[in-house]
Design goal:
Chain lengths: 117, 233
């Protein structure tokens, strides 16, 4: 393959891949959009919605609490909601809104927040 | 001769009514295109990225005719009140507070008020915008009643909706729109469709999609109607 052909091939690959890259939202952006409302912009469980809640949302910066949860449990809690893991109904199921890949991104981001990954 | 004049008169009358309705809707459209388009999407399907979601300043009005009740629109446009306590995308309007994140009131923009005449023509024009009609099942809502206490039990304890929505001013979550005026504000068949699939109407919205049985959906709408009735008494 000549140098020119290689260049064209790389450009074509870039064109193919770029829409995928640009459409993938980061864990941090997903967290801001869907989780801040209850878990708070500082991820400390002190979101705007909590004053009339019967159960305090999880503090995602609490390394001890978060270490007690496996990635699989976090994934299930996000995808199927609190009730699916015998927790509060206030944690909704996000499986109808987020893809499995997006939920995985969120789990990875949770590990960054708690520094317990 | 008179017998021939009558059909002509009726036809002319109908044409006049039709023409005046078109003129009124056109007047409303002109206001929408000049004053409302900066904050409201009048034609598009909705955002395709989170950045697009965060940039929204007001609800998508391309399907206003499937969503709102005309009487409510006309009244609200004259004296707008805040429906979303933390604005369109709450993330743009909050800051860390002492006990929890709080709304940064200074960041919120008041909705412009229209004159009664403007509100009338704009409401008529909005009712003609019916994008996404395929999502509506006419007659999906079957009118019925529920006690406020039972409705609240479903809304709060069983489904957790109170977490994000206020059921009276100052009580409930604030990231979503208040629901105490929903019964007056929204068409019942739209509510059913929206709760079943919020993202189909409002792509990427932070309203979760909970699987609910039709029986529960019906009860929730009964509850919204009861709340509005209670609020207007």
């Amino acid at each position: 393959m000549s140098r020119r052909e290689l260049k064209v091939a790389v450009m074509l690959l870039g064109l193919l891949v770029s829409p995928l890259v640009s459409s993938a939202e980061s864990g941090a952006d997903l967290y801001k959009t869907y989780c801040w409302q209850c878990h708070g912009m500082l991820a400390n469980g002190m979101g705007m919605n909590i004053p009339d809640m019967s159960v305090q949302p999880r503090d995602h910066t609490d390394a001890r609490e978060m270490s007690a949860r496996s990635d699989k449990e976090l994934f299930e809690a996000i995808k199927d909601g609190g009730q699916a893991i015998n927790k509060s109904v206030l944690m909704p199921p996000w499986g109808g809104v987020l893809s499995d890949d997006e939920i995985q991104s969120l789990v990875r981001y949770l590990r960054e927040l708690c520094k317990c990954g | 001769m008179m017998i021939w004049h009558k059909p002509f008169a009726v036809a002319a009358g109908l044409m006049a009514v039709l023409f005046s309705a078109m003129v009124v809707a056109d007047a409303g459209d002109k206001i929408l295109e000049s004053d409302c388009v900066e904050c409201h999407d009048l034609k598009g399907a909705g955002p395709s990225s989170l950045a697009g979601l965060w940039a929204l300043k007001g609800p998508n009005l391309s399907y206003a005719g499937n969503k709102y009740k005309q009487v409510w629109l006309e009244q609200w446009l004259v004296a707008p009140t805040r429906i979303r306590p933390a604005g369109m995308f709450y993330g743009n309007h909050i800051k860390p507070g002492v006990e929890q994140d709080v709304v940064d009131e200074d960041s919120l923009v008041k909705h412009q008020a229209l004159s009664a005449d403007e509100a009338k023509v704009v409401a008529i024009a909005l009712m003609q915008r019916k994008a996404k009609s395929e999502l509506i099942q006419p007659g999906a809502y079957k009118p019925g009643t529920i006690s406020i206490s039972m409705g609240e039990m479903i809304f709060d304890k069983f489904r957790g909706c109170l977490g994000c929505h206020q059921i009276e001013p100052g009580y409930g979550g604030i990231s979503g729109p208040e629901v105490y005026s929903v019964g007056d504000r929204l068409q019942e068949d739209y509510i059913i469709s929206f709760i079943q699939n919020p993202q189909a109407w409002s792509p990427l919205t932070f309203m979760p999609r909970r699987p609910l049985k039709d029986k529960d959906l019906q009860k929730l709408v009964h509850y919204f109607r009861a709340l509005s009735k209670e609020g207007s008494q």
